[in-house]
Queue: 3 jobs
Job 1
Amino acid sequence: MSQSEATSAPVPVLPAPTRVEAERWVAGVVAGGAFAPGQAESLGRALRDASIRAVLAEGALAIKRSQTADRVTVSRNIFIPLTNLCRNRCSYCTFAKLPDSPEAHTYSLDEVEEVVRGGVATGCIEALMCLGDKPEVAYGSYREDLEKRGYSSTTDLIYEACRRAVSLGMLPHTNAGILSREELVRLRPVNASMGLMLETTSVRLRQKGGPHFHAPDKEPATRIRMHEIAGELKIPFTSGMLLGIGENDAERVDTLQTIARHAARYGHIQEAIIQPFHPKPGTKMRAASPLEDDVVVGWVALARLILPPVVHVQAPPNLGSNMLPRLLAAGVDDWGGVSPVTVDFINPEAPWPALRQLREETEAAGFELRERGPVYPEFILEKPDFFDPQVRVLLPNHANDEGYAQRRNDQSNEEAA
Ligand code: SF4
């Protein structure tokens, strides 16, 4: 159980491992076992040691190759921030705006359509609907705006936006923060996949002074519960960990183990994003130091070793543009969504690489870049029960015989972004 789920036996604090010990522990995982209690934490504390990192990366890469050989995937997508209002106020966020901000914006369906048409024209398959958590809970003016548009909730807007995207030939993936079971049931028939980064199981970070103090939806137990419901509903799901917002090594391991446990139990977690925090001007955490690249690479390798091999490990290439070969060598097998049309609205300061450049860099590191849609090939080929019938009939339009991206004849295959 995670720290946030229930109490369990305390994790022993092991001394820093020698290289030989690290090799033995990692070899056990590569052979199909799991770290013994305390080992992953001990490795996490030793990540600044280059020899330990090398052991982890070697093991992580062996697991990656056992699953996907030299293949690394990317999803050519559009990012539609349906609303940038949010009931939460995380200390590191620049995405969320207050209703009176000139930058506050909620999309109309015409605006959604315009972006979707741009995506279709440039060969995108995934329409990422990413937005703030339930702003109607916090803002009366937003509730009135929704009402004027004929919606009773943000979920109504998401549903209509997804329907519009589907009707124009794209497959939606929604990440709208915390959604109830009823909302997930409603959105499943108009989404190929959905997601919620677990981020962290640290309940400490919800306390006064912590980055999630003003973010009720960042309560770990609430996020874990949504992972369970998505599993029960058989929704292909994206989770992930946010690195460097104040959590400690034990909390990082706990977060990864919690994702791993839910993936093993429900088989619904397609991928885990390992996303490093970058401080942003104008936020409370503007002066916080991000993790060193070495440490990020080390945690990517540890994630690969802790998660079930079938869960893809994703690193956003725009947040580690100077270390792509090292991320690949540490077991990353997916670059996530990269858009030729829209910016990363969560990290607008970090431009996406052009797909052609990403392909060149991936190949230069000895790997092969393949495009996918919002769902991975094995879900399309082997898990038909994970899709609502309305979605299932759409999948062959977007996937080839191997489950990778396939475009209509009139869609562009151009990679220049
Ligand atoms: S929940 Fe997401 S959008 Fe809302 S404040 Fe936190 S990071 Fe920003």
Job 2
Amino acid sequence: MPILLPGRREHGAAPLLARALAEIGVRPVLAPQPCPPEEAVRLIAEEGVTYLAALPSQLRALLELSPAAPAWPPALDRALLSGEPVDDGLRHAAAKAGIEIFAHYGLTETCFGGGVECGAHQGYHLREADLPVEVIDPLSGGSLADGLEGEVMVSTLARRGRPLLRYRTGDMGRMLPGPCACGSPLRTLGPVAGRIVTDGGPSRCSLRKREQRTRHDRPAQDARPLAFGRQARRIGHHRHP
Ligand SMILES: [Zn+2]
């Protein structure tokens, strides 16, 4: 499994993923950094692998090389994407190349873990044995029922030192009601719509859409007001883009 994800320090995302894969019998291939798209395609083809772990922008760069090219790795049919939003255009381009995308949701604050899509592609199945997830009204702080959109809040109970308790991520999402079509008993966090930003006062906030955000782009400044209760409460945490 080639890993193009950035971060080669000892406890970076890529080495941690490589270690976890090795523990379940999967042979990880840490791509060099930087790894131009042509080099990545050659590596994937040489290793004869079927599964890729990468940033969405990295997969997009690979697809722009044209899957019809003779050097395109024929066995590659799945990709675990993390670190950036996955838009419909990328999903479509990947599907045309015969690649099924499994998007991952996680935070640096949770040591990158969180949830991952299943074959139903409705949202992220959560690993709540380690990371309980709630969705709250970002203004009142009150819990929201499944299906209602609000701020995603996580706890890192398995951490040995300084666990986070009910940490407000600033991400906007909703818990999908009912069982998943795949049959998994794990709860599913729906697609994360964007980032919650304060908007001129303690009783107002808005949504900054996630679409088109990558590590190299500024986020779209398309903010829409959110309809929440009147209780004024400033949002406590924001991860800056
Ligand atoms: Zn599922």
Job 3
Amino acid sequence: SIQICIVFATFIVFMNLNFKIAVQDGARCYGALGGAVDLQLMDASEIKRFQWKKGGTLILQWKNNQIMSNIIENRSLFIPSNGTFRINNLSRNDSGEYKLVIFDSNGTETGQRTLQMLIQGK
Ligand SMILES: *[C@@H]1O[C@H](CO)[C@@H](O)[C@H](O)[C@H]1NC(C)=O
Ligand SMILES: *[C@@H]1O[C@H](CO)[C@@H](O)[C@H](O)[C@H]1NC(C)=O
Ligand SMILES: *[C@@H]1O[C@H](CO)[C@@H](O)[C@H](O)[C@H]1NC(C)=O
Ligand SMILES: *[C@@H]1O[C@H](CO)[C@@H](O)[C@H](O)[C@H]1NC(C)=O
Ligand SMILES: *[C@@H]1O[C@H](CO)[C@@H](O)[C@H](O)[C@H]1NC(C)=O
């Protein structure tokens, strides 16, 4: 099954479906070892540019209505129509801090959202 972690870019809120509550920035997001997780950006259509980073590493870059780079493209999928970034075949190494960095159309950073990913399994 796919765990879902909902991220609002225009509000400082995360929705953790495991607990069905809105939580603050820095929320925990859980994935199952070997499973998949959806990082679901609710208001992606309102954002011109964004990046998903893990630690200091740029994972996914969205700009000019297209994916500019995705270093895990062979096990992930970004669905522009609904802002979902699905990461498949999770390993323990996928645990850690994920950061959404948001930019305006001029490339000026306008905000960040952080979540803590925890990959759990046998
Ligand atoms: C995905 O890409 C990485 C790096 O290019 C490679 O090491 C790995 O074997 C690939 N995995 C699959 C399932 O293709
Ligand atoms: C986003 O689209 C994908 C592919 O169609 C789908 O699997 C996923 O459930 C969608 N997510 C939402 C929240 O609609
Ligand atoms: C999933 O990732 C593991 C390493 O974590 C790798 O050994 C395995 O081949 C991958 N499976 C698929 C279907 O890509
Ligand atoms: C996980 O990280 C360790 C240490 O950085 C590395 O040796 C290992 O190859 C990584 N495993 C996968 C599946 O990426
Ligand atoms: C981008 O820069 C132009 C020229 O400096 C300015 O007129 C415009 O308001 C800026 N757009 C945003 C979204 O800040």
